[in-house]
Amino acid sequence: MTGRRGRRTLAAAAVTAALGQLSLPAPPALAADRVDTSCRRPPQQGEPLPDALPGRNLTDRLGLAQAWDLAEGEGITVGVVDSGVDDRHPELSGAVREGAEVVTVRTKKGYRIQRPKPPALDCEGHGTAVAGLIAARRGGEARITGVAPASRVEPVRVVGGVENAPAEALAAAIDRVVDSGVQVLNLSFALPVDRAPVRKAVERAVAQDVVVVAAAGNEGTSGKKMYPAAYDGVLAVGAVQPTGQPMKESNSGGWVDLAGYGQDEVVLAAGGSGYRRDKGTSFAAPQVSGAAALVRSRFPRLSARQVRERLVDAAAPVGGGTNERTGAGVVDPFGALTHLAGDGGRAGAQQDRQAAARPGAIPVQAVPRPRPLLSPTGATALAWSGGLLLTVLLAVLGAPAVRRAAARRWRPAPVGGGPRGAGADRAGADRFRTDRARPPVAPALDGLTGGVSRTRRGRTDPTHRTHRTS
C-alpha cells in the first residue's frame, strides 16, 4: 500500500513540475489589451464633385441661407456616436474635437475607453458623412455646407461598428460624449430591440438637458419601434426624397417625430478628401441635429424639451398633416428659429416666450393682437347716445311741418303753393274742385300731327256741316 501511494505521489509531483515549465497563454483580459483598432480595409474613397449637381442642394432645400442670417451654431457642440470622424477632410477643418474611442474587450466590464491615436480613423466613412451634414464649414464647397457650420462635433468612435457592439459599450459611448459637455447628441443607428443599458444612457442624456436625435432606421417596417429613436425624450427622424415624398425604406410609426432628406445625399467621404452619395435615415438625423444646434445657439436659455417642441411645431407638413412616416413633417431650420412658440396650448409656453436670445440677437416677439377701439360697454353707450341724438334731430326738424298740418286741420296741403293761412287753404280747395269739373284737354298727338278731332270740329268749327245719308 505504502509503495503504491508513494509512486502516485511522485507521479503527481512530476506532472506539476512539467506544467510549471510550460508557457501558458495570458488570460483573455490581458490579451484583449492588444486589440488592433486600425482599419482592416481602407474606407471608401471619395470623388470630386461634378460641376452641376442634379436637383437642388441641401442648402437650398432647407433654406439655410436665411437661417444663417440668424444663427450658425456658434458655441454649440454636437456629439456623434458613430464609426468615427476623419477630421483631415478640408470641409471639417477646425470643426472636430479630439473625442474618444470605445473598444470592445474581453473583460468583466466588456469595453475600454481610450483616446484615439492620430490620424483620426473612420473605417466605414459613416461618421464622417454625419459630421459633415452637421458642421461642414462655409469656407469650403458651398453646396456641401453643414446645417450648423459654426458648431463643433465631439466624436466617439465605436471600434468594430455600432451594430456589432454590445449594449454596455454603446451605453459607455453615450455617457462619454454626454460627459464631455455636448448640447446636442446625434445617434444615427437603429436597434430592433430595447436594450436596457442603452435606454438608461439615453435617459441620463435627456436628464442632463441634451437634445437627443436618433435615426428611425431603414428596414421599411411599419409600427415596429426602433431604438433609441422610440425612447421618450428623443427626436425620431424619418427620411424623405428630394421631392418631399417619404422614402420607402424609412421605418414608420406613431413614434416618428419629423423627417429630413435622406435619398441620394451628397456627403463627405473619409480618407481625407472627396465626396460620395449615400442614403438613409442616418443622414436625415444629422440635419435635425444641426437645426437643433442653430436653435440652441440663438436661444441658449431654451431647455432641450423646448427645442424639441420648436423643431416639431415648425416642421413643414408632408401630405397636409402629421403622419406615421414623416411625423410632423420635414425639418425647417429657419422656421424653428422664427417660430412663435407659446400659444397657450403647450406646457412650458411661458418659459419659451421669456427665453433670451444669444448676445446681439433680437428675440422674435409674438405679433400683438388687434384691440377694439371701444369696449363692449363703451359701444353700448355710444349706440344709445346716437339713438337719442337722432330722436332730438327728428323732433327739431319735424316741428314746423307738424304745426302747418295742424293749422290745415290735418288736410292735404294745396298743390302749387300760394299764400299761407286758412283762406289760402279754402282757395286751394275751390281750385281743386274746379279743375276736376273741366273737360279733358284734347290729346297732344292731334296737335303734333296737324289733325283735329271730330269732337272738336263738331263743337268749335263754325263751318262744319253734318252730312246724313238716306
UniProtKB/TrEMBL annotation:
<keyword id="KW-0472">Membrane</keyword>
<protein>
    <submittedName>
        <fullName>S8 family serine peptidase</fullName>
    </submittedName>
</protein>
<comment type="similarity">
    <text>Belongs to the peptidase S8 family.</text>
</comment>
<feature type="region of interest" description="Disordered">
    <location>
        <begin position="405"/>
        <end position="470"/>
    </location>
</feature>
<dbReference type="InterPro" id="IPR022398">
    <property type="entry name" value="Peptidase_S8_His-AS"/>
</dbReference>
<keyword id="KW-0645">Protease</keyword>
<keyword id="KW-0732">Signal</keyword>
<keyword id="KW-1133">Transmembrane helix</keyword>
<dbReference type="InterPro" id="IPR000209">
    <property type="entry name" value="Peptidase_S8/S53_dom"/>
</dbReference>
<dbReference type="Pfam" id="PF00082">
    <property type="entry name" value="Peptidase_S8"/>
</dbReference>
<feature type="active site" description="Charge relay system">
    <location>
        <position position="82"/>
    </location>
</feature>
<dbReference type="InterPro" id="IPR015500">
    <property type="entry name" value="Peptidase_S8_subtilisin-rel"/>
</dbReference>
<dbReference type="InterPro" id="IPR050131">
    <property type="entry name" value="Peptidase_S8_subtilisin-like"/>
</dbReference>
<dbReference type="InterPro" id="IPR023827">
    <property type="entry name" value="Peptidase_S8_Asp-AS"/>
</dbReference>
<feature type="active site" description="Charge relay system">
    <location>
        <position position="282"/>
    </location>
</feature>
<feature type="domain" description="Peptidase S8/S53">
    <location>
        <begin position="73"/>
        <end position="329"/>
    </location>
</feature>
<keyword id="KW-0720">Serine protease</keyword>
<dbReference type="InterPro" id="IPR036852">
    <property type="entry name" value="Peptidase_S8/S53_dom_sf"/>
</dbReference>
<feature type="region of interest" description="Disordered">
    <location>
        <begin position="33"/>
        <end position="54"/>
    </location>
</feature>
<keyword id="KW-0812">Transmembrane</keyword>
<keyword id="KW-0378">Hydrolase</keyword>
<dbReference type="InterPro" id="IPR023828">
    <property type="entry name" value="Peptidase_S8_Ser-AS"/>
</dbReference>
<feature type="active site" description="Charge relay system">
    <location>
        <position position="126"/>
    </location>
</feature>
<feature type="transmembrane region" description="Helical">
    <location>
        <begin position="381"/>
        <end position="402"/>
    </location>
</feature>
<feature type="signal peptide">
    <location>
        <begin position="1"/>
        <end position="31"/>
    </location>
</feature>
<feature type="compositionally biased region" description="Basic and acidic residues">
    <location>
        <begin position="427"/>
        <end position="438"/>
    </location>
</feature>
